[in-house]
Amino acid sequence: MSDSDPFEEIVANETELPQALDGARPGETPTPDLAAIEAGSRTLRTQGPAPEPEALRPADPEVAAALREVEAELATRWGETKLEPSVTRIAALMDVLGDPQRSYPSIHITGTNGKTSTARMIEALLGAFELRTGRYTSPHVQSITERISLDGTPVTAERFVETYRDIEPYVGMVDAQQEYRLSFFEVLTAMAYAAFADAPVDVAVVEVGMGGSWDATNVIDAGVAVVTPIALDHTDRLGGTPAEIAREKGGVIKQDATVILAQQPVDAAQVLLKRAVEVDATVAREGLEFGVVARQVAVGGQLMTLRGLGGEYPEMYLPLHGAHQAHNAAVALAAVEAFFGVGAQRAERLDLDTVRKAFAAVSSPGRLEVVRRSPTVVLDAAHNPAGAQVTAEAVGEAFDFSRLIGVVGASAEKDVRGLLEAFEPVFAEVVVTQNSSHRAMDADELAAVAVEVFGEERVQVEPRLPDALEAAITLAEEEGEYAGAGVLVTGSVITVGEARLLLGKG
Questions:
Q1: Rounded Cα–Cα distance for residues 206 and 119 (Å)
Q2: CA dihedral over 488, 491, 492, 494, signed as positive or negative
């Protein structure tokens, strides 16, 4: 072994590996900054435990190499932001695979915000009732394997690789028959459906990637469809109004299904109800058939009383912060009740102790997640104005910060002005940065918008995320150990995932 710095050796090794996360461009290699993120910053970790060595990569070098190879192959396909609105290719692949998605019942989740947290709650509830679950969500926070979970745990790297190799020949067959090759997201969706059938699972919990009608996940015929709150996001692809977006998302509502509707803008609700009538679907609406009766802040989360389709569920502890998470919990509970036939075949509520146990065990990484103390650092993956608004409100409710420093790194295609305006009332200062993704907005461009929103004296620019985190923590520490200042890292799932690694959360 040489006398060189082990950290520098890891950085050097990582820069030689192909970057396949987040649909990176084929042949692209990670920057030294990304390598540093994967290797970790020792300075930022001084306040927390060291991460597991397999946080992003398996400990076994052969398995790690196999996973990198699969990621590199997936990265040669269209990324998740390049779409061709049809399910023709994914339907063709499902056909040659023998339609694995039809071998189990499913719950399909669409909406703009709250999908992943709601999916995790549904999964926890179903698991508590001793059902084997498969969960498919996107994007991932740290590792691509997070997207496919069995019984609440991401599949192992070995299983991820095996599943890809199992369907690879069929993917090639479909590629050869279609005008365009299957996309990154389409192949991952097929992998999830195949893995669930192979497990086998009792029920699949599936989050759409984008939209609904032509989303790759929409080859399932879900008996329960969930629509979380709709807001403006991906307007270039889904439409410029909530009603237009709802029209696309309503495509997940199938014949004779049960639809669980979170609170919606009036025009979006009208579109969704019209779709439900057209396909003879049964509708349960938050605020009418189910909802949040009461909630109060508790240590590490909140205590809720929910009204479900079968009755009232008092004293439910949820270890997540914010009113929006209580509403997500109400939606999740109603979806699971509908899956079990509550409200249709039977009127009684689900077992209270089982529901309490499930909610108490819920986690949602990167959603108002505390990753460090003294000063407190919180991560939240809000990436559009509506998400930023509920996060800003939740931070004010759950944390008694005397001064809050923001670290913001956003994607270029997002409404960054709207996002920054939502955070302006709660951020004393903001450190603008960028993550490693090729979709990231340039830090200087983001800073120009931030200056218009916050004023020049409240904006600091640090293009490298490790530097941005250090700067924000330093600003928070200026008030002293007991002053109560904090840091909120936000703007993108990718930014949060990379910060999570830097701060020692594997």
A1: 7
A2: negative
